[in-house]
Amino acid sequence: MGNTDSKVDFRVAVVQLTSHSQQIEPNDESFWDQFWSDKISSAQDIFALVPAAEIRALREELPSNLATLCNKLVDRLQLAAENSCHTHREQTAAINCVRLLTRLLPYIFEEPEWRGFFWSDIPTGQQQMTSNGEYVSKPPLAERLLQTLADLLFCPDFTVASKKKKGPENPEDIHTIDSCEYIWESGVGFSQPTIHVPSNDRNRTEILKLLLTCFSETIYMAPTVDQHSRPNKWLAYFTSGQNRQTLPLFTSLINIVFSYDPIGYLPYNYLLFTDTREPLVEVAAQLLCITLDNSSISSTDQPNTSGEDSPNLFLNYLSRIHRDDDFNILLKGICRLLNNPLIQTYLPGSCKKIGFYQELLMLFWKFCDRNKKFLFYVLKSSEILDLLVPILYFLNDARSDASRIGLMHIGIFILLLLSGERNFGVRLNKPYTTRIPMDISVFTGTHADLLIIVFHKIIVSAHQRLQPLYDCLLTIIVNISPYLKTLSMVSSNKLLHLLEAFSSPWFLLAAPDNHHLVFFLLEAFNNLIQYQFDGNANLVYTIIRKRQVFFALSNLATDASTITKLSTRNTMNKQTVFQANSKSNSDSEPQLNRDFIPQPNTNAPGVISNAMITTLAETPSIHTMTERTLAASSSLDDNNLRTRSNTTNESSPSSTRPASPPLSTTTASNLFPQNDNGLWSATSEWVQSWKGKLPLQTVMRLLQVLVPQVEKICMDRGLTDESEIIKFLQHGTLVGLLPVPHPILIRKYQPNSGTVMWFRTYTWGVIYLRNVDPPIWYDTDVKLFEIQRV
Predict the structure, then answer these.
(1) Residue 640 CB neighbour total at 10 angstroms
(2) Where is the composition biased (Polar residues) (predicted)?
């Protein structure tokens, strides 16, 4: 009953504040004290008792009351910090100020005229006065708020455990302690044992959520270069040297995330005990994602990814991590948490499953992108496969879910980044023995087989809006192909099935960039044949068995009448590129009847809620995201190099060049006009412009040599079993018979403004949907993305 009365009193104060009849005087301390008294016990109470409509009305009709309330809240927080929150009353006041500011700030940010309020100069009448009667200028409200929050995150007996004996005679002063001795968890850069206090976790979580809210001004700006060319002032100040807590806070955040073990030692522990650590870990991961963001986006300049000279000290500290022991802590933590949703036990539901794996994937991306030493450590480590498997699991699990397209993007972007390095391709040759629950074809093979099978599944049965990612998926396969020693029969069939589908005339002529997919696949086949022929008898057998696919490509019609006929069929017969009668689909995979005629490039939705999803920025093209480089000579086995060095040059000069999509969309579009419906249509000139560049020489030479040999041995020995033919191919050789090996071309990820904007939109979309208790940004006028209801 008493608690209900307290809430009524708080509600009365809110109504009085928003009343149209009166302006509350700033010096009415008894009135303002009601907002941070112990009448309120949770953030949920604040959100229920301070409705959105009343905040907007206060902002529009009584702006002076809102301004005074914000000033009073920051002043009270600052006073609590100066007193080091020694008493329960001070702690309650501080945390309620934090909750109320978390409620108010989104409504201040959604109104452009109010965004400068926290950065404006303090009026003379409200400044501090010295004993001489002179006014001392205060820093802007935003700076005072951010520094106070940073200090409160290292306040003994409030957010960190005290290191001194308790008692009024031994208080610890928040302004004199060394915060680096109070880092929240041992790990990177800090080895001292720490004490876990649940109340400290709860207070940290509330403060970190307010910091997220402070930085969320970004989501109230449209996703344009003009809007995001200026740095976020809140973020710039907090990550700069003006914040004295940057180092201990950065260290605390990464250690609290990567030391977290949701399982523990007791089955069903999460049902027996309240876990105060997981909400803290989740918001810490989200805050890291935001503080490690680029501060601004330029339409012309490439983003700086080194971080070493960045004014953002969080990026600077991340780029300077270099000890193997620290890298090991980070990598083991990421692997442990990403594999958590995959854990299977004999006791159903006995292990706690985390929900913040998207934030973890974003953090891994940022760590690899900003610290190349960490990336190379990951690539050298055998644990890279412990990262690959959960990523492939998430990709396969989310492939048909429109609400998780953002998760698909981040997973594929990470694999694209890794595939640009030789060690990743080499590591994929390790046998895949761990079995996790995925609805894919049963196979015996390597992690490379797993990757190809999952990619095939994504393409043939995924959501239509994933089509812009096909280039990325095939680029990854091309990048790893020179290093894959042995592909299984299942994955070999999958690759041929993709080529068969993408090389069908109606699909090739359906869009100006569709032929790029054929170029990527042919380049992958050439890499495997030229550099890994000896171990890939399964693939060679599959190529021989499906040789008509290559013959059809070689004989693709280019005359105008046939092109017109096929193009007309495209518009009349809307069928899926993957038909159920495809013989290469021998493992009885489910087929979809989706329309694969290209659709307008709309924003794809992505994230995690069953009720709401958020839109994403446009996916950058593969040409924007990657730069082509030649692989180092050490990237191949010496034996393979010696074997191929004896080959003869019987092909045209184009055979010595790696396959590459020859035309940009802009160039291609000039070769065919639009039809009467405003849609483009293929022309004979367009087909001729790329058909002659198809890198078919290596495969055609292989077929020319091996097909007669296989046919002869089948007739001579009466072979009907494919295993016998494969055994024959394993002992075959093409030394001196193939064209001169082409140089290996690797497409490495390169930072660009398009991916910066995509990651910013995706990150904030995830944070928006994950923070629903309380719903910090719900029903506010967000501009960075759209919120769609499912």
Answers:
(1) 18
(2) 579-591
Rounded CA-CA distance 202/455 in Å is 42
- Taking CB atoms within 8 Å and a gap of at least 24, the contacts of 661-664 are 661/513, 661/515, 661/516, 661/519, 661/520, 661/690, 662/519, 662/689, 662/690, 662/693, 663/512, 663/689, 663/690, 664/623
Residue-by-residue DSSP string for 541-585 = HHHHHTHHHHHHHHT---SHHHHHHHHHHHHH----SS-TT-TT-
SS3 at position 605: strand
More confident: 752 or 412? 412
Q: Would residue 436 be called left, alpha or beta, if left means φ above 0 and alpha means ψ between -120 and 50 degrees?
A: beta
Tokens 């030391």: give the residue. Answer: 259
**CA gap 152, 175 in Å, rounded:** 10
Give residue-wise pLDDT tens across range 15-33: 888 886 778 888 888 888 8
CA neighbor of 738 nearest in space, from 687, 700, 773: 700
Domain ranges of the chain: 1-118
In degrees and rounded to multiples of 5, residue 642 shows phi and psi of: -65, -40
Please give the distance of CA 517 from its chain centroid, rounded to a whole number. 24
Closest CA to 775 of 761, 759, 787: 787
Alpha-carbon span 96 to 80, nearest angstrom: 11
Beta bridge partners of 430: none
Of the candidates 315, 260, 311, the residue with the CA atom closest to the CA atom of residue 285: 260
The span from the CA of 279 to the CA of 200, in Å, is 12
Q: What residues are paired with 187 via a beta bridge? A: 190
pLDDT one-digit tens code per residue, 500-528: 999 998 888 888 889 999 999 999 999 99
| Rounded Cα gap, residues 282 and 773, in angstroms | 13
Q: Tokens standing for 730?
A: 């394993």
| 3-state secondary structure at position 745 | strand
In contact, 63 and 69? CB cutoff 8 Å: no
pLDDT, residue 347, reads 55
Amino acid at 404: R
Tokens of 457: 């599944």
Q: How far is CA 753 from CA 184, 229, 614, 616, 618, in A?
A: 35, 10, 20, 15, 12
- What does the alpha-carbon distance between residue 277 and residue 261 come to, in Å, rounded to a whole number? 10
Q: Determine the distance from the C-alpha atom of residue 198 to the mean position of all C-alpha atoms in its chain, rounded to a whole number.
A: 30
User: CA 523: distance to chain centroid?
Assistant: 28
| SS3 category, 707 | helix
> Using CA atoms, how far apart are residues 649 and 446, in angstroms rounded to an integer?
33
669, pLDDT greater than 70: no
The pair of structure tokens assigned to 679 is: 């849609």
More confidently predicted of 79 and 754: 79
Measured CA to CA, the distance from residue 73 to residue 88 in angstroms comes to: 18
Question: Using 50, 70 and 90 to split pLDDT, how confident is the model at 666?
Answer: very low
What average pLDDT does this structure show over 89-106?
A: 96
Contact between 523 and 695 under an 8 Å Cβ cutoff? The reply is yes
Amino acid at 512: P
14 backbone dihedrals φ, ψ, rounded to 5° = -65, -45
At 712, list the tokens.
């002869």
Residue 317: closest CA among 309, 750, 330: 309
Closest CA to 746 of 625, 630, 655: 630
- Quick one: how far is CA 80 from the chain centroid? 38
Residue 403 has which token pair? 């609400």
Sequence-ordered list of residues with C-beta below 8 angstroms from that of 269, at least 6 positions apart, any chain: 263, 352
Judged by phi (left if over 0) then psi (alpha if -120 to 50, else beta), residue 678 lies in left
Integer Cα distance of 321 and 477 in angstroms: 31
Phi, psi at residue 151, to the nearest 5°?
A: -65, -40
Question: Does residue 112 have a pLDDT over 50?
Answer: yes
